[in-house]
Structures are given as structure tokens and as C-alpha cells.
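call fold(seq) -> C-alpha cells
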Amino acid sequence: MKQFILGVVVLLVPLTSCSGQQRTMAPGSPVHKLNMATSQAADSTRSPRVLDSTQTTSNLKAMVMKTEEEWKKILTPQEYRVLRQKATDRPFTGEYVNTTADGIYSCRACGAELYKSDTKFDSHCGWPSFYAAIDSGVIVETPDNSFGMKRTELTCARCGSHLGHIFDDGPEPTGMRHCINSTSLRFSPAEKKD
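ret:
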């Protein structure tokens, strides 16, 4: 598939998801690349969730497209390893493992709001854990069979950066555990009301 970019206009190509629902995304975008790669995964047990063009997500203003060289210039070496090369923080060492303050967790690479603090819980797994994203369109789920394990990777829908993985052993109301690297997040405390 070819990418057509004319000035600031990006040609959108309609695609059909596994459920038959039509979705539109920019060719070559992180979401498009992830969707194309995962649609070909033969042993996938979950359909990846992708940003639906009919959804209005206020904090996903526009896709962030940068070259790897551009990412290297704006991210620290550790941030680059985790966000762009899919490395993992060592368990129990992350900046936000024990954070309990009210606020919003955003993607460290692009600033997209991902999680509210009221969905964070102590899973005792060594990484910040959340039972739901702030909106279904802010993350992308992709089958991950690396290292001989069957998992589902979570990436930022706005910039394609690696966040962590999702598991089905979380608390109610979703039963899901979004296991996220602290390095992938930036926390903004809630403003105090007088």
C-alpha cells in the first residue's frame, strides 16, 4: 500500500476490521501499520482495538508522526528504549508504581491523556496498573508473541509508542489489568479545588 501525502493533506484509506466495521486511518500511520500487521496474525485470539474515525477523542488532536532520529532527539535513552524499542522497566523500580495522587497519566512521548488515577490499582506486579483507559480510542491492542509468550501489547494510538501489556486478571468493573511502564507515562496531578 502506498502512502499519499500532498502538503498537509493526508489521503485516508477505509479499511474493514475483523468485525466488519469500517475504520479509516492514514496510510503509514502508527495505527495503520499496527492494524495491518495484526490483521495478518494467524493465531490472534483478540481483535486489536484501533482508533475509530467516528470517535471524538479530545486529547487525540492529531497523529504524531516522527522519524526514529527525531524521537531519539526528544526522548532520553531510557525513554527511547521503552517507548520506541519496546523495552520494559525493571519491576518495582518505576517512578509511578506507588503513586496514589489524583490526576491524569499521559503518554510521555506525545502527551495524549491515557489513564485517570481513579482507575489505577495496586496489582503487586511491579508496574503501574489500571483497569481501564481514559477512552477506548486512546490505546491500540496488538497481539504480541515475543519471547515465547502470548500477550497483548498496548501502544499509544496517537504516536504508536509502546506502553506495556494488557491481561485479563484485573479487578471489576472490567476485569482487565493494563500493566504499563512508568517510563511510558507522565503524571499530571489534579488541580486542587479551594
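Helices lie at 30-39, 68-74, 77-83.
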